[in-house]
Amino acid sequence: MNLFSPTVAAVCLGLLHIIVPARADDIFTFSGFTFDQRNTPDRGARLGDSQNLGGAQFSSGFASSTTINPINFPQGGTGFNTNLSLAQLSGLRAGLYAVNLPNGNQGATNRHGIEVRWSNNRAIPNMAGTDFVVYESASSISGVEGVMARVRTNHVADLWSDWFYFASTNFQITSGTEGIHSYGFDLSAMGVPENASIDRIQLANLMQADRIVGPGTNVNGSLIGQGKVIFDGSTEVLPDAGSYDGNRLFDATQLDPDPLYVASLRVACELSAPLLNIARTGTNMLLTWPSPSCFSPQSATNLLASNTLWTAAGGSIFVTNELNAVIISGTHSARFFRLVR
């Protein structure tokens, strides 16, 4: 099934598994995961203001400080865009910096967070395995501080998953003892159906009163676990700090994470076909549509034919003013255009 631009055809809704050709400059690896930066969320905001989001009570105000400009992050391509750091997306500071959560670092009793999303109505699909990674700056390998997350599963009805916490799976040194923990999130483990999509991610610190859905595992006399976060005290299972922590328990000083970057391991594509604009430029035609995009243009000469032949339109796609663009020669026989993926 193709999705078509409404320029020439009705939109067929659905999120496909798109394979976008990788470009070496956009591919990066760090702390056990490889990601294409073109799929990184590129919009963000801070969470707080005494809101209650999915049962999680947030404190007044918002996170207001940043920390750690890590060197040697990430590794791989040459064109890493530091403007996609969480400090930049949340409006706190330009460059590669992490956000201090919560404000004042009093995570035992306070909570703040960050929301990220994709521009141009894009979303990522739930596929097998880890779907996105939260990179969190740490002073040492044992300095785990934990990040919980929830995702929006329906943009029309504004439906969200529960909050989930999973322990760090990898750590990589950036300088001296400092490094970055990677927290992988599998959308299936968060209750998202296979092949469904999510278009927003919210992150926040755990608080000392937070618990995990049971039954949990007994470690040194304490029940610990990973998964759905509980806020009503109905379970005794504590968040499992993971194998990098000596006793696998968070103390009151370990609930102030510094999330740096959210990496999508899936291709971010539009939930519906974008609008294709056609304009004259001299003797040629200029086709434009929002960038980034998973769609590309096709052209045809006759829509009335029973076997209308659609072919790739124009030459190379270029980007100008956040628009994809392609020039169609004025001598080209095609007069009908659409976007497909």
Description of the structure:
The chain is mostly beta strands. The chain has one helix at 86-89, and strands spanning 27-30, 33-36, 43-47, 52-53, 56-57, 66-67, 75-76, 98-99, 113-117, 122-125, 132-138, 148-154, 159-160, 164-165, 170-175, 178-185, 197-198, 200-204, 211-212, 217-219, 222-225, 227-230, 238-239, 259-264, 269-270, 277-281, 284-290, 296-300, 311-312, 318-320, 323-328, 336-340. The protein has 2 domains: 24-266, no CATH class; 270-340. The protein is 1% helix and 37% strand. The strands form 9 sheets. Strands 3, 9, 12, 13, 14, 18, 19 and 22 form an 8-stranded antiparallel beta sheet that branches. The chain has a 4-stranded antiparallel beta sheet with strand order 15-16-11-24, with no helix packed on it. Strands 26-27-31-30 form a 4-stranded antiparallel beta sheet, with no helix packed on it. 45% of the residues are buried. The model is unreliable at 1-22 (pLDDT under 50).
Q: Give the CA-CA distance, first to last residue.
A: 9 Å
Radius of gyration: 23 Å
Strand content: 35-45%
- The parts where pLDDT drops under 50 for at least 5 residues are 1-22
Q: Count the strands?
A: 32
- Tell me about the largest β-sheet: 8 strands, antiparallel
**Subunit arrangement of the protein:** single chain
The dominant shape is elongated
Average pLDDT metric:
90
The domain count comes to 2
Structural class: mainly beta
DSSP helix fraction: under 10%
Number of helices: 1
